[in-house]
Amino acid sequence: MSKAEGRILLVDDDPSLLRLLTLRLEGEGFQVLNADCAEAALELLQKQDVDVVLSDLRMPGLDGMSLFDEIAKRNPALPVILMTAHGSIPEAVAATQRGVFGFLTKPLNNSELRDILQKALHQSVPEQSDWRAGIISRSEQMEEVLQQALRVAPRDVSILITGASGTGKELLARAIHQASPRAKQPFVAINCGALPEHLLESELFGHTKGAFTGAVTEHNGLFREADGGTLFLDEIGDMPLPLQVKLLRALQERQIRPVGSSKTIAINVRVLSATHRDVQQAMEEGSFREDLYYRLNVVNLQLPSLEQRPEDIPLLARHALQQSAERHQVKVTRFTDDAMQLLTTAKWPGNVRQLMNVVEQCVALTHGPVINAALVEQALTQDSSYWPSLTEARDQFERQYLVRVLQMTDGHVTRAAELAGRNRTDFYKLLKKHQLSAQQVTDDAD
């Protein structure tokens, strides 16, 4: 890693350790700025841009957690790593739940320090993150997905993005577009489940004047609107079968025929699609064409749920707070510790979208600069923006059922399969679908 790729602000009140760590980090190729207290670090941050803050936890005046709180108000996306000679597991857990990127115990292990700095830099360095600027994350699971996306973005292949509602499928599609050679051309999105069949066909392929009642003018359609760029088909699993045939033909022949026209029009469009549905099951049921699936699913990117990336919750909550406060022009600056604790331990069936809505409610209802736990609890209780689709509700029940039946049989898969009325092979397929294992369920129960 070159110096230009990593500028670290090192904060410690021990001069000898400060000097030693500076030499060690510079030897690794990082550019290092020094501060001997939190107050000096905050002054430095007003003048200099850094990629990571590495700070001692115990210091006179403002301690490391207080420094983190101040940084989080000013720049929520800046990773902060804390060091302490008095580390304990509860202390580390509390720090990470509040949004601290990492926690190291002195004396520092060289490889652990290097690894955590590199992970932090993957989140922070602008050269690596411009294309994904709209995606707020530091979790390893999300990082893996984003690195896959970055690798396939320059290749003109179709990508199917899967994941539950509210996980950010359109955001990922926009990021892929931004990282592709088509970035300067249009990005056009449509929800395939939001329109009836005849309107969806017209929206996608266009229509001629007089093609049907109400078609008083010619309409180009989204394929032509996206020409040269990217067309994002959200909830592709809800597309009616007759339209699936027409879409497949358009993708194979790279040309479309508007409704009411006898002429075909050449198109140059990259298609990205997304769904929260189980497309394999839809194909088995005959509601989704297998040939279209393989045409759209050249590469599959699976977005994790918010429950699978809990370390992102403080980061997302602070980002939402900052955006909402600016939008409503109110001076709301932070969450109390117990309020953040509630957010990080809450279940988020509506994922990031639901979290954003809860924060928005808190900002709208608060009378002061700080959001407390009572307000978060009220917003969580009253939040009615999320209602699962039938497919999502079924999937949630199915997962809970699998967990329960494995707990009842102490993780014995054969007995669990018998209780569920399934053969072993089918039962294992269900476990794989929900990313479960018998060992994981029994460990969690313990």
TrEMBL record:
Residues 135-364 form the Sigma-54 factor interaction domain. It comes from the Bacteria. Keywords: ATP-binding, DNA-binding, Nucleotide-binding, Phosphoprotein, Transcription, Transcription regulation. Residues 7-121 form the Response regulatory domain. The modification 4-aspartylphosphate is found at D56. Pfam families: AAA_lid_14, HTH_8, Response_reg, Sigma54_activat. This is Sigma 54-interacting transcriptional regulator.
